[in-house]
Design a protein that fits this description.
This protein has 830 residues and is α+β, with helices and mostly antiparallel strands. It has 40 helices and 16 strands. Strands 1, 2, 3, 4 and 5 form a five-stranded antiparallel beta sheet that branches. It has a four-stranded antiparallel beta sheet with strand order 6-7-8-9. A four-stranded antiparallel beta sheet has the order 10-11-12-13. β6 and β7 form a beta hairpin. α15 packs antiparallel against α16 and α32 packs antiparallel against α36. The longest helix is centred in the last third of the chain and has 48 residues. It starts with a helix and ends with a helix.
């Protein structure tokens, strides 16, 4: 067969694929231009070539094939790597008979069981994995693993995309290693550290470990074999990120499935019967924990859980050691534990100090404190305060000495505490210095109990609790002393009242039978029923009728200030017999039906006492609605002009772009252009239009009032307050870039709320009850006009629907014309 191929051309390469049933031959045509890769399957048993199954891959015009390497990836697909004399590197898939150009400047290549590597004329070493990797690696910004052949082949459908991705990939730092000029590959080794052997031009050999291949080896060691010891040593030798080991199987599995303990035992090279650990291995573990904790951008909760798992694993190792070595092991393993505790966020200095104070030897204690202060140089003062919080003066003194604090100040301070005979008093003074007032109160009560064994509560304890507002704790600690409890509750009630919790304050005063203060608190909080009841419990108030009436009067006034007019009227009627004041309060609150009930009860003429207020309010409401409707119409017209100008400008811009004009030469539409263009044609509609005009202050709940300084009778402070608020308003006139935005906001905000619709309905009912047909029709028409006008706004701006029917239910005795009028307006609203 080879002879036959030689008769048709020149055979440049011939060999056997990794599969024992296929051979290959690279044949050059007689013209010396085109090359073809011929795949020759043969039967081993009969030693005959199956001529019917010959496969050919036309390589086209390529240079002379200098070298061919057969490889197989993780999915058992075979490839042939062909290198030409011009540096083109071709990858041929034996199954699909397809090929791609991997590089055009390749100088040498080599393969192992796990990787394929090649060098380029840019003096770089490029790596490819022969394992099957996931597709996510091709799209990540910073690729950590080498690309695999199955990933490369999945992109063959789009050659342009493939070339771009390959070029970008082989220019990224994690996957390309620079090498000496003109160095060539000798071989790639898959055992041990996945190294690559290069030969320099001067003849010496160099062994390198590509970072991407080492990263892949670490991940596969952990995922497939859980060989944390080997992975740790490879990562440490190549200075890989410690986060790689923790996250290889996911941090949750590392924390929950015992992988942290497996890593610790693997690093320390401990078996089940070992009783001695090596300090240099502990140092390596400590460095690993420190590097992992200092990584930026890690999730705080994840880092904390991983570090805590390391602590648990180290504790487990320490407990497994025998008793003779346990003390030494605690000292040796203390440094990685301190690192894990102090490098968390927030740092657990208290836990670290508690582990340090278990050491018995002074030299070991000093060494541990010195290492702790090295870990937290910026927070050494906090470490000193945490040491004081443990009430261990020896440890605090050692921390202060290592921290280079003022020796005179520290010595005097610690000496004073050490001289105290009472341990409780010493702890109280330390807590007071640290500001731990809750703990200080506990120790103060404990110290007082040693002096006064009957109750243990002294005036000093009560004053301390009140000074630092430890009310809840004091109520628990002083439970056996009624006088102390009374003082604490009284002070707590004052504090609650200052915070605005009048109900709680009044309840506390009721518990200590301070009825006057309780009633005042309930009154100020608006709990008038409780206020009057607690006031009646005061014997002095009951004997003095004027004082009682004065308190009821003040309660009614508070309800009036809170806007609770009906309740104010009830208090005046039932407790003061003040029908006039009650009627005035109800009319102020617009509670018309309650006012009618009050007139019926006291025999007042409702038409005389109520109708004027109803008519005044109806007139103000009608004027406000009519004025608002006028303003809405003006703003709708202005908005329509702006939208029309924008539409025309967009059409003009579209026509210019269709005609091929440059965008920079066209008059591109902008909001400011549209606004300024529209301002010229809208002067006849709203020449003085502005959102801060006098009419814009008009509320839907009242008529417009003059705000000029000369026409106002308000105080000077009120005038300056209005002036300041007016200056803060942003003036929006015609042509402003934000004019359209403010027009839309105004139309949204002016929509009547349900409260306004209900109040209007109640006024209409009262007008019809008092036979004020004209005024009721005016108010009805004003509201309907406003609603109908708002419905004419652009739907994409308003997006609202009016479902409330403000027309009252009319009895059949009314005239047909009035019934028809309300029926038509109701239909319009619906």
């Amino acid at each position: 067969e080879i002879h036959r191929l030689r008769m048709s051309g020149r055979v440049e390469q011939f060999g056997k694929c990794l599969s024992s049933s296929t051979m290959y031959a690279v044949v050059r045509e007689s013209n010396g231009m085109n090359a073809t890769l011929v795949l020759i399957p043969y039967d081993i048993s009969s030693e005959r070539i199956c001529e019917d199954e010959l496969g050919k891959v036309k390589l086209g015009v390529v240079g002379t094939i200098d070298d061919v390497i057969p490889i197989r990836d993780g999915s058992q697909i075979e490839y042939l790597m062909l290198l030409t004399d011009h540096g083109r590197l071709l990858v041929v898939n034996i199954e699909t008979k397809e090929f791609i150009v991997l590089a055009s400047d390749c100088t040498s290549m080599a393969a192992s069981d796990e990787a394929f590597v090649f060098t380029t004329r840019s003096h770089s070493l490029c790596c490819m994995s022969l394992h099957v990797n996931s597709e996510q690696l091709m799209n990540e910004r910073e690729l950590l693993l080498p690309i695999s052949l199955n990933q490369l082949w999945s992109l063959r459908e789009n050659s342009e995309q493939l070339n771009g991705k390959i070029q970008k990939y082989f220019q990224s730092a994690p996957h390309v290693r620079p090498i000496d000029r003109s160095s060539r590959l000798i071989c790639a080794v898959s055992k041990g550290d996945v190294c690559v052997i290069l030969e320099a031009p001067r003849g010496n050999f160099e062994t390198v470990v590509p970072r991407s291949l080492a990263t892949e080896r670490v991940i596969r060691l952990i995922q497939n074999e859980r060989a944390y010891g080997e992975a740790f040593r490879l990562a440490r030798a190549q200075r890989l990120d410690p986060q790689l080991i923790v996250n290889a199987n996911g941090h949750s599995r590392f924390v929950n499935d015992g992988d942290a303990a497996l890593l610790v035992r693997s690093v320390l090279q401990m078996s089940s019967h070992d009783t001695i650990i090596q300090s240099n291995l502990v140092s390596q573990l400590n460095v690993f924990i420190t590097l992992y904790a200092e990584q930026n951008g890690l999730n705080v909760d994840v880092t904390r859980s991983v570090l805590n798992s390391f602590i648990d694993a180290i504790d487990q190792v320490s407990h497994e050691l025998n008793t003779a070595q346990n003390e030494v092991a605690n000292l040796v393993l203390l440094e990685p534990i301190l690192s894990a505790l102090c490098l968390q966020k927030p740092a657990l200095f208290e836990n670290a100090l508690r582990r340090i104070e278990t050491l018995n030897d002074s030299d070991q204690l000093a060494h541990a404190v010195d290492y702790l202060l090295i870990l937290c140089q910026d927070e050494s003062d906090r470490v000193y305060r945490e040491a004081l919080a443990l009430y261990n003066l020896q440890l605090a003194s050692l921390v202060a000495a290592q921290n280079q604090r003022d020796p005179k100040e520290t010595r005097d301070q610690l000496g004073t505490w050490a001289e105290m005979s009472s341990e409780a008093r010493r702890r109280f003074e330390i807590d007071l210095f640290l500001g731990h007032y809750s703990s200080a109160l506990n120790h103060l009560v404990e110290d007082a109990s040693t002096v006064n064994e009957s109750t243990g509560i002294t005036n000093e304890c009560v004053e301390f609790a009140l000074q630092h507002k430890l009310f809840l704790q004091a109520l628990t600690k002083f439970e056996g002393d009624s006088n102390a409890i009374r003082r604490v509750r009284d002070a707590y009630a004052h504090e609650l009242l200052a915070q605005g919790d009048a109900y709680a304050a009044g309840s506390l005063w009721m518990s200590v039978e301070s009825f006057t203060r309780a009633s005042d608190a309930f009154r100020d909080g608006g709990f008038w029923q409780l206020a009057l009841h607690s006031r009646r419990m005061c014997e002095e108030e009951m004997r003095d009728g004027s004082a009682w009436n004065g308190f009821v009067e003040s309660t009614a006034n508070v309800l009036y200030e809170y806007g609770r007019f009906v309740e104010c009227a009830r208090v005046r009627v039932e407790y003061l017999n003040d029908s006039e004041g009650a009627l005035s309060a109800i009319l102020e609150g617009k509670a018309w039906k309650d006012a009618v009930e009050l007139c019926t009860r006291f025999g007042f003429d409702a038409k005389v006492r109520i109708l004027p207020s109803v008519m005044e309010y109806a007139c103000e409401q009608s004027e406000s609605l009519e004025e608002t409707c006028t303003k809405v119409k003006e703003r709708q017209n202005r908005l329509e002009q702006l939208l029309e100008v924008k539409r025309l400008m967009n059409e003009r811009l579209a026509r210019k772009q269709e005609n091929g004009e440059e965008e920079s030469q066209s008059d591109v539409f902008s909001e400011s252009t549209a606004s300024s263009t529209a301002s010229g044609g809208a002067s006849s509609v709203a020449s003085d239009f502005t959102f801060v005009s006098r009419t814009s202050y008009t509320s839907l709940y009242g008529s417009a009032k003059s705000t000029a300084p000369g026409g106002s009778k308000s105080s000077t402070s009120t005038y300056h307050q209005r002036k300041s608020q007016k200056q803060k308003k942003k003036r929006i006139k015609q042509g402003h870039p934000d004019e359209e935005k403010y027009l839309c906001e105004y139309l949204r905000n002016v929509i009547p709320k349900d409260e306004l619709l209900m109040s209007t309905k109640e006024v209409l009912e009262m007008l019809l009850y008092f036979n004020q047909e004209k005024l009721s029709i005016r108010l009805q028409n004003a509201m309907n006009s406003l609603l109908n006008q708002l419905k004419q706004s652009p739907q994409d701006i308003m997006l609202f629907s009016v479902s409330s029917n403000i027309s009252p239910s009319l009895p059949p005795t009314w005239s047909i014309s009035l019934i028809d009028h309300f029926a038509s307006t109701s239909a319009t609203l619906n």
